[in-house]
Design goal:
Blueprint lengths: L1 H13 L6 E8 L4 E4 L13 H9 L3 E2 L3 E3 L2 E11 L5 E10 L1 H10 L7 E6 L5 E4 L15 H9 L13 H8 L6 E6 L4 E9 L5 E8 H52 L14 H11 L1
Antiparallel strand pairs: 1-2, 1-6, 3-5, 4-5, 5-6, 7-8, 7-11, 9-10, 10-11
Helix pairs in contact: 6-7
Length: 291
């Protein structure tokens, strides 16, 4: 009866998010699963995991990194259980399916910009959330050696098949974000060059990374250049047109005076220049008429 009564609050916790909460359990002070919402997990030894040792050791709540067990990726939230004297007697832990991050990051992808958003583990370079090719979710950008793979997989830090599209340029870019906030890389899946930037999260060793095709990123610059070129061409055409009109205005009286002079030369002594202005051209026309 006591066990049934203890299971009720655990089951009520799973109902808070039944899609992503995989199980809720109580671990005793030796790390043995003594009560779980999944009956088959009862009796498992979880003492080697940090989500058990950390809260039992320091008495504080704990959030794990993503832990891979076979083909399942999970993140664990845990908190110490204490008796009335404040002594740690066990741990309450909740296992969430890591796909919850995919749900969160998908909600950020509004589709208004042609960009790829991802959450990347700064140590393993695993994409824990990814709006790009779904096959690359929970896959690492780094091409690990066999020894590294064995060590990290046995520790639950990497999935059984950790690589799809590895990219050393992304790994180098993440490592140098503090010195160089923007970096370029080539995506085999998209068959184009990307420009990326990122920022480390405060509570976890993860990087929030945003990548965008260089063509899209530079598109506003090219549009501005085209606009500037068009404006420059229009200004050149306007300048040429304005110069032509100005030259016509300036030379027209001289052309008229020249034609009058040609008439006089041909014998028409009654030809006279029309005086329109009182400037130098007008004075010249009056002088010509007097002559």
């Amino acid at each position: 009866d006591e066990e049934k009564n203890a299971r009720l609050p655990l089951l009520s916790l799973t109902r808070k998010n039944s899609v992503f909460i995989h199980s809720v359990s109580i671990l005793d002070k030796n790390g043995i699963n003594v009560l779980d919402t999944l009956e088959e997990k009862k009796g498992e030894d979880e003492s080697r995991f940090t989500y058990f040792t950390r809260p039992l050791g320091n008495g504080l709540p704990f959030v794990s990194n993503i832990i891979f067990r076979g083909d399942r990726a999970s993140i664990f939230f845990s908190s110490p259980i204490k008796n009335p004297d404040g002594e740690g007697i066990g741990v309450l832990r909740i296992e969430y399916r890591a796909s919850i991050f995919q749900s969160i990051i998908r909600s950020l992808d509004t589709g208004e910009i042609d960009a790829i958003i991802s959450i990347v583990d700064a140590k393993t370079y695993v994409r824990t959330g990814y709006t790009g090719d779904r096959d690359n979710l929970f896959k690492s950008y780094k091409d690990f050696t066999k020894l590294e793979l064995v060590a990290m997989q046995s520790d639950g830090r990497l999935p059984l098949d950790p690589s799809r599209e590895t990219n050393s340029a992304v790994v180098d870019g993440i490592n140098n974000l503090e010195k160089q906030p923007f970096f370029y890389s080539y995506s085999e899946a998209l068959s184009q060059e990307l420009i990326s930037t990122g920022v480390p999260l405060k509570k976890q060793q993860w990087i929030a990374l945003v990548s965008q095709p260089t063509e899209v990123y530079l598109s506003p610059v090219r549009d501005q250049n085209r606009t500037n070129t068009l404006i420059s061409l229009l200004l050149v055409v306007f300048s040429i047109g304005a110069g032509f009109v100005a030259s016509q205005i300036l030379t027209s009286p001289l052309n008229i005076l020249t034609k009058v002079a040609e008439k006089v030369t041909s014998g028409d002594l009654n030809a006279r220049a029309t005086v329109v202005t009182k400037d130098e051209i007008g004075v010249l026309a009056e002088t010509f008429n007097r002559m």
